[in-house]
């Protein structure tokens, strides 16, 4: 294929979720165009030479590395394991760092002159019109502007003093209601310094849920960004205890909204509160490890969100444990922060970065890469500009990356597609076969010729990634691992356990598992008789119960639910019953295989795990989201499928099916037949049972978003909400 042919490939606008999270770099940054002679030479070097070398290398299967070992613990009988590298659970990263406030202050002194928090300059904001009359905000962004650890400590001291000067008293709670940015973290650290409890609220949370969170916690002060300030003003009469609001200064020249309707509030900008504190210094009121640091509201997959009470000791234990499992984690690392800080995954990640003096550069899902939906053409995305070494991601983003790369490759065709397919297959064979080609000359060859440009998507320097928040499909995990040339492991944890309970180790090349226990907690399997999961099975199976210093204090103002899910054993170890079903592998790693709440018994007596089936079916190129529905009065499953517009329209074009209107395309029988065929294939590859595979589907053209109330802010399915919204469609599928 000639270079001109590659440059004429269409851009990948389709590589976006409903908010336009990710897309490939422009076509000129695609894989190297290759002529036939070059391709022939490449294949000779890339295949024959490594193949001959691989024959010489020993292929003796090595004994699996032991990653977790059985241990003696208290509480309900079961099979418990701990990380094999530590004889006892870790609780603090070092002596004296036993609260978030102490950890932060000590790190700010230790890494005083090291750059800490980075925010991009906003050069210009404008709106562009599309062909259908809609307008889209586009941003021209500049370089990252940094503050050091020492400067951050000064700002935190000033803001903490400023809150006291405003009248916020000990025992009153502060709510954080903002998108992820540097001031979110600075504001939270200021609260920790004065032992103020922080209530975290998702910026995308519905208004009813927002009022519930603020009223239930009796929040007195709210720290928000300028966008959320407008929401607060619009419903100010619904908040029972709010007295003051501090809004983060707008990035750019935006002015705050009118405050005339909230005369009963004290409203101040973030910078003005810092100034008040600078003029009136207040001594720190440092917390104790058992004091509540955060009341984090879960995103509420069922009903109203629940507030989880996290102590300083809980969160510090997570920092201590996670710090030990990221190889060579140091102040030389740079972390890209763009996920919601109101989610425990992002909060734990940023706190861990602080503990090692790493730099944190802030971004947004809408400006993540060069072709994100809010990036002005010609402007670098956050990741290419920052060049992070570490990232976290959720499966929804990684699935989009995979789908976009594959679409780009398929669109290129010819030599580019042939080379990519060969390179990908060879890398998978090398990694899974654990032979010479995994790390030798062949890897360098494929990385240089094929994968280098793909890695530029996230800046080209990422050395490790963590996926969390939801199950990551094995196909996507392997794809990202190969194309980005860096370990991508799954972590498993919950808000109730301060995130990380297990964490895939970087030398573990398996997929579909979530790793061994992190050194700050135990993982125990207990029998679940109803589902016939027992620790005496081979391999051992059961409900996952997590114990240790990161297990939180329980649910805010919900003692009944706390008593149901949390237990304290005779050794004073606190345990959380997750409701997830797991199994231990021979090396001690955990695999999530089921969910108690997602089990449905069909008419013929078979049990269907809805979450497991959905995880497998999401591997279809046609699926953006899927919900399996199983009715106990029937012997089969059905499914609601949010269709991937790019993939379905591409099929329709090849099949000569009218695709001028996507909604109409989704209603066509031939489209449903094609998608159902794809689902059957991925189900077969995923080794699903016949009764687990949907026999009928409903294709949907509109995405499920947090704003629609059908998924949580963390993009988890709100099953009951979806069932209610599509009750008639589900009924029709069974008719």
UniProtKB/TrEMBL annotation:
Q: Which reaction does it catalyse?
A: a long-chain fatty acid + ATP + CoA = a long-chain fatty acyl-CoA + AMP + diphosphate
Which keywords does the record carry?
ATP-binding, Ligase, Nucleotide-binding
The protein depicted here goes by the name AMP-dependent synthetase/ligase domain-containing protein
| Segments passing through the bilayer | none
The text of the family note is:
Belongs to the ATP-dependent AMP-binding enzyme family.
Q: Name one GO molecular function term.
A: ATP binding
- Which Pfam families does the record match to this protein? AMP-binding
Keyword ATP-binding listed? The answer is: yes
Gene for this chain: LOC112282782
Q: Which GO terms describe its cellular component?
A: endoplasmic reticulum; membrane
SUPFAM superfamilies, per this entry? Acetyl-CoA synthetase-like
AMP-dependent synthetase/ligase domain segment(s): 142-556
Q: Does the keyword Signal apply?
A: no
């Amino acid at each position: 294929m000639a270079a001109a042919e590659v440059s004429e490939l269409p851009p990948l606008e389709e590589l976006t979720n409903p908010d336009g999270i990710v897309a490939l770099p422009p076509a000129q940054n695609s894989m190297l165009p290759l002529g036939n002679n070059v391709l022939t030479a490449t294949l000779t070097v890339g295949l024959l030479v490594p193949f001959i070398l691989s024959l010489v290398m020993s292929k003796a299967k090595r004994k699996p590395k032991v990653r977790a070992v059985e241990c003696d613990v208290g509480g309900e009988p079961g099979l418990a394991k701990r990380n094999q590298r530590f004889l006892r659970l870790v609780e603090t990263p070092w002596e004296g760092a036993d609260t978030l406030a102490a950890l932060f202050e000590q790190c700010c002194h230790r890494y005083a002159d090291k750059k800490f928090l980075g925010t991009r300059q906003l050069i210009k904001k404008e709106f562009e019109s599309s062909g259908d009359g809609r307008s889209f905000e586009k941003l021209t962004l500049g370089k990252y502007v940094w503050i050091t650890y020492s400067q951050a400590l000064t700002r935190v001291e000033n803001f903490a003093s400023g809150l006291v000067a405003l009248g916020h008293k000990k025992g009153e709670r502060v709510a954080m209601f903002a998108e992820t940015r540097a001031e979110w973290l600075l504001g939270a650290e200021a609260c920790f310094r004065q032992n103020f409890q922080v209530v975290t609220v998702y910026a995308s949370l519905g208004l009813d849920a927002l009022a519930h969170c603020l009223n239930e916690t009796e929040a007195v002060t709210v720290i928000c960004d300028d966008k959320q300030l407008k929401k607060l003003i619009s419903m100010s009469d619904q908040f029972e205890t709010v007295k003051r609001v501090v809004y983060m200064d707008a990035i750019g020249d935006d002015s705050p909204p009118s405050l005339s309707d909230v005369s009963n509030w004290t409203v101040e900008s973030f910078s003005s509160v810092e100034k008040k504190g600078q003029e009136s210094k207040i001594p720190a009121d440092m917390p104790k490890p058992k004091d509540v640091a955060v009341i984090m509201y879960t995103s509420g997959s069922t009903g109203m969100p629940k507030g989880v009470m996290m102590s300083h000791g809980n969160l510090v234990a997570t920092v201590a444990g996670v710090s030990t499992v990221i190889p060579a984690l140091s102040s030389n690392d740079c972390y890209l922060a763009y996920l919601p800080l109101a989610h425990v995954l992002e909060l734990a990640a940023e706190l861990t970065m602080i503990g090692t003096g790493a730099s944190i550069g802030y971004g947004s899902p809408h400006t993540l890469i060069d072709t994100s939906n809010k990036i002005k053409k010609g402007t670098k995305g956050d990741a290419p500009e920052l060049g992070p070494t570490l990232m976290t991601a959720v499966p929804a983003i990684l699935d989009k990356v995979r789908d976009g790369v594959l679409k780009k490759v398929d669109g290129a065709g010819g030599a580019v597609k042939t080379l990519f397919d060969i390179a990908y297959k060879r890398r998978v064979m090398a990694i899974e076969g654990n032979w010479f080609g995994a790390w030798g000359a062949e890897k360098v060859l494929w990385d240089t010729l094929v994968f280098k440009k793909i890695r530029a998507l996230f800046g080209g320097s990422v050395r490790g990634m963590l996926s969390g928040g939801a199950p990551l499909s094995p196909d996507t995990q392997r794809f990202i691992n190969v194309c980005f040339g860096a370990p991508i492991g799954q972590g498993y944890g919950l808000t109730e356990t301060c995130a990380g309970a297990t964490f895939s180790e970087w030398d573990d090349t398996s997929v579909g598992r979530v790793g061994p226990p992190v050194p700050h907690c135990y993982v125990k399997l207990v029998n679940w008789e109803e589902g016939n999961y027992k620790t005496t099975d081979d391999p051992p199976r059961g409900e996952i119960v997590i114990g240790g210093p990161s297990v939180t204090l329980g649910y805010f103002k919900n003692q009944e639910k706390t008593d149901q899910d949390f237990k304290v054993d005779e050794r004073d170890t606190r345990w959380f019953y997750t409701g997830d079903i797991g199994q231990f592998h021979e090396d001690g790693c955990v695999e999530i295989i089921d969910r108690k709440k997602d089990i449905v018994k069909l008419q013929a007596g078979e049990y269907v795990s809805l979450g497991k089936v959905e995880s497998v079916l999401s591997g279809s190129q046609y699926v953006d989201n899927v919900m399996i529905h199983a009715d106990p009065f029937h012997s089969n499953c059905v499914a609601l499928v949010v269709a991937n517009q790019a993939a379905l329209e591409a099929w329709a074009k090849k099949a000569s099916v009218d695709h001028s209107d996507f909604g109409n395309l989704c209603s066509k029988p031939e489209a449903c037949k094609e998608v159902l065929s794809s689902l059957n294939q991925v189900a077969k590859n995923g080794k699903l049972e016949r009764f687990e595979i949907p026999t009928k589907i409903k294709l949907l053209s509109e995405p499920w978003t947090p704003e629609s109330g059908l998924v949580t802010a963390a993009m988890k399915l709100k099953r009951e909400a979806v069932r209610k919204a599509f009750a008639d469609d589900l009924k029709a599928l069974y008719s």
